[in-house]
Amino acid sequence: MINVAVVAGGDSGEAVISIKSAKVVAENIPADKYSVYVIEIKAFQWVYQHPQLGSIQVDKNDFSLTIGQQKVTFNVVFNAIHGTPGEDGKLTAYFEMLGLPVTSCSSIVSALTFNKAYCNHVVRNSGVLVSKSTHIFKHQDITPAEILDQIQLPCFVKPNQGGSSVGMSKVKSADELEPALVKAFAEDTEILIEEFVEGRELTIGVLKYQGKIMPFPITEVTSKKEFFDFEAKYNPALNSEVTPAQIPLSLTAEIQKTAVHLYEVLNLKGVVRFDFIHSIKGLYFLEVNTVPGLSNESIVPKQIRELGYSINQLFDMMLTEALSSK
């Protein structure tokens, strides 16, 4: 049997979603091939909950467990941590030092893609449209008026390194900017301010398997709130997700081609999800999620089923890819 550590939790506002994702992962990894251990990570507490023995601490020297008289080591890590330290490369760097294969991107790629401003530069230089933005740091002495000299309203103010729209605001008037900055800086020491692009929000999962980059069916997302914030993302009553998106075949082809192009340009690995806005000016890149949600409410599981695969097959493919790259 192949021992799999499913890492979950983390130190961000997305920890609760990560736990849900990990539960789905653990329940659906093929049991005839893999032995699964869910490791919950919170700061320095790395714990496996044994059904009879209770909490067992992970030995961080070699990422192992001692259960009774038995030492359990792992063949592969399934990364289900959204946000830090799983999605920003910190935890992946640790596993790379141990020589343990992981289902998600390398530490360098994770660090780049998690930093929205830096990722946007790479995406823009690859020929894909990105909204005009400014990147500011907490220590900078910059006023809302100076920001509005660079950025037109409406705009989005968001933590530069974060997910699930935590700390994000849509600003429509000048007096709303200062509170939005305070809210975003409560989550991060650097923030990104982007001009609003009006259009349809379209998202697509992508997986590389056996040398082939596979784009998934596209989902159109609409929110009943001002934008697709944390509450709307995880409350079905506040959003609508249509898979496959009811869009022209030409737009489907463009999104899939762009997603495959960016997967290659960014040197991604495993399952990722790209978010785009299609406006009258063209297709705009919003962001890439290198550890997308895998809970029952999440988009990627719906897309993979639409593609004709079971969620069990998806997780097996991810683990197979990770093990083959060792």
Report on the architecture of this protein.
With 326 residues, this protein is of the alpha+beta class. It has three domains: 101 residues, 3-Layer(aba) Sandwich (Rossmann fold), CATH 3.40.50; 145 residues, ATP-grasp fold, B domain (D-amino Acid Aminotransferase, Chain A, domain 1); 64 residues, ATP-grasp fold, A domain (Dna Ligase, domain 1), CATH 3.30.1490.20. It is built from ten helices and 17 strands. A hairpin with a 3-residue loop joins β3 and β4. α2 runs antiparallel to α3. It is globular and about 65 Å long.
Give the topology, please:
Elements: E1 2-9, H1 15-28, E2 34-42, E3 45-50, E4 54-57, E5 65-67, E6 70-72, E7 76-79, H2 90-98, H3 107-114, H4 116-125, E8 129-130, E9 133-137, H5 144-150, E10 155-159, E11 169-171, H6 177-185, E12 190-195, E13 200-209, E14 212-223, H7 230-233, E15 239-242, H8 249-265, E16 271-279, E17 282-289, H9 299-307, H10 311-324
Parallel strand pairs: 1-2, 1-7, 8-17
Antiparallel strand pairs: 2-3, 3-4, 5-6, 9-12, 10-11, 10-12, 13-14, 13-16, 14-15, 16-17
Helix pairs in contact: 2-3
**What best-fitting shape do the alpha-carbon axes yield?**
globular
Overall pLDDT confidence: 91
Strand elements, count = 17
Question: Helicity level, as a percent range?
Answer: 25-40%
What is the count of structural domains? 3
Strand content: 25-35%
Radius of gyration: 20 Å
Structural class: alpha+beta
Name of the CATH superfamily of the largest domain: ATP-grasp fold, B domain
Biggest sheet features: 6 strands, mixed
Widest β-sheet, arrangement of strands? 8-17-16-13-14-15
What would the CATH topology of the largest domain be? D-amino Acid Aminotransferase, Chain A, domain 1
The CATH class assignment of the largest domain is Alpha Beta
Low-confidence spans: pLDDT under 50, at least 5 residues?
none
- Tally the helices: what do you get? 10
Write down the secondary-structure element order: EHEEEEEEHHHEEHEEHEEEHEHEEHH
What is the CATH architecture assignment of the largest domain? 2-Layer Sandwich
